[in-house]
Amino acid sequence: MEITKICCIGAGYVGGPTMAVIAQKCPHLTITVVDLNQERIDAWNDENTDNIPIFEPGLSAVVAETRGKNLFFSNAVEKAIEEAQIIFISVNTPTKTYGKGKGMAADLKYIELCARQIAKVAKDNKIVVEKSTLPVRTAEAIKSILDNTGNGVQFQILSNPEFLAEGTAISDLLHPDRILIGGDQTAEGQKAIQALTDIYANWVPRDKILTTNVWSSELSKLTANAFLAQRISSINALTELCEKTGADINEVARAIGMDSRIGPKFLKASVGFGGSCFKKDILNLVYIAKSYGLNETAAYWEQVIIMNDHQKKRFADKIVKTLYNTVAGKKISFLGWAFKKNTNDTRESAAIYIADDLINEQAAVCVYDPKVNQKKILSDLDYLETRSSQENAANVQSFDNPFEACQGAHAVAVLTEWEEFAHYDWKKIYDAMQKPAFVFDGRNILNKKEMQKIGFVYHGIGS
Ligand code: UDX
Ligand code: ADP
């Protein structure tokens, strides 16, 4: 089959940037990104591409270059499905909040809905590509829905996991370490793999395009994220020991990272990892292992999450303990709310959990994040369902300016590694704060000695 049209279901952090880059690199293809969320589609279509719903360095330029030429954003889901030869499924797969596997398994209701929609409208053979992170064997479920509810047309299901990291999505997409495509070992399966390989080969060297069976591909995605998260939990697991013994985790990370077998990346101690993938994917892995009765395997990976939760809790506890065991009525200012720098995404951000703990202790939390607004901050807290929306709103306030956010504060907590934070006039912040002025650097981005010289009581992670 000749590929001329692609449809992507889901205009989120994965679907949007991925399709923008495919559009840029494949001007001969027409790509339509669809979403049920009208507001989101309207934002993608905003005349000013700086207003697109996702902040990602370089993205708005790629959208400006391609939108209206061969990249389209639309709510007409069925039309786009019907016309395309390849359909990417890029919808969200949150952890289940109800029923069997609650808090662990992936909620596949959005995926199932997509499969049913595709089955309903497809009038000719299609290649369906799983782009969302999915539990192993989801492809089988999608195939079963498509084959049993469809109009008798043939579907090939491919697993093509996304490895982009937010904040660097465009460069990750342009220069991927590898592209992974899993498909059936049948002749039709191999043809479908070839069709998708040909698309990526427009800009990715062929030797970086790896093909496997569907299940290896699905499991590789979960495994990659589990390994990355494990490195962070491993380094974080030593921070408490460093604080007790006088070792410095930054020095330890540097020393071990120079061993070429270990390598220097993903060894930055922090207040804890966040993001939409790590926790969800590990929980998924744990759930799958448990469902096969592999309890040791499940417990091994679960520990990565337990350590991360401990790290967040420990950070909040340390603030309370250091501030003379009470933060009631005290102003604690957060620099950063996003789960990492260079994104406006806040899913699973450590800041949410730290704020929740501090509000329980009746602190007044003030926030400055260059890309996150008050509405988002409050909806993140409301999502935890710890207290009413009114109570959250009464205890948290966000500011457009870091100096205002820190005015009169008892302590500042750095929760996202935004580069601008390291370049502030910290003397000015110090002068505006209550004394003694405390800084809790949850990202180890400030210079400890300089902060102490200004007069701050400085607490980093693991030093
Ligand atoms: C991750 C994977 O990196 C990516 O390949 C996959 O496709 C999706 O999940 P993402 O969640 O966007 O990407 O960001 P990542 O850079 O992995 O960071 C995740 C979290 O770990 C962030 O909160 C980050 O601040 C934290 N982190 C990262 C650390 O605390 N220390 C580190 O050394 C690295
Ligand atoms: P990710 O980080 O995986 O891209 P997001 O939540 O940012 O996740 O994006 C997923 C998008 O998928 C959301 O905008 C959501 O509205 C959309 N979506 C979910 N189910 C469907 C569906 N059946 N049809 C169209 N869009 C959907």
Features:
463 residues, alpha/beta, Rossmann fold, 2 domains, 13% strand, binds adenosine-5'-diphosphate
Overview of the structural elements:
The chain is α/β, with parallel strands linked by helices. The chain folds into 2 domains: 5-212, NAD(P)-binding Rossmann-like Domain (Rossmann fold), CATH 3.40.50; 252-459, Rossmann fold (3-Layer(aba) Sandwich). The protein is 45% helix and 13% strand. The chain is built from 19 helices and 14 strands. The chain has a 6-stranded parallel beta sheet, with helices on both faces. Helix 9 runs parallel beside helix 13 and helix 12 packs antiparallel against helix 13 (295-322). The longest helix has 28 residues, at 295-322. The model has no long low-confidence stretch (mean pLDDT 96). Adenosine-5'-diphosphate binds next to helix 5.
The count of strands amounts to 14
Summarize the biggest pleated sheet: 6 strands, parallel
CATH fold naming of the largest domain = Rossmann fold
Bound molecules: uridine-5'-diphosphate-xylopyranose, adenosine-5'-diphosphate
Q: Give the radius of gyration.
A: 23 Å
Structural class: alpha/beta
- Tell me the span between the first and last alpha carbons: 59 Å
CATH C-level class of the largest domain is Alpha Beta
Inertia-based shape: globular
Number of domains: 2
Low-pLDDT ranges: none
Strand order of the largest sheet: 3-2-1-4-5-6
Overall mean confidence score, pLDDT: 96
What percent strand?
5-15%
By CATH, the superfamily of the largest domain comes out as NAD(P)-binding Rossmann-like Domain
Helix content bin: 40-55%
The number of helical segments is 19
Keywords: NAD, Oxidoreductase
Enzyme class: oxidoreductase
Family: Belongs to the UDP-glucose/GDP-mannose dehydrogenase family.
Pathway: Nucleotide-sugar biosynthesis; UDP-alpha-D-glucuronate biosynthesis; UDP-alpha-D-glucuronate from UDP-alpha-D-glucose: step 1/1
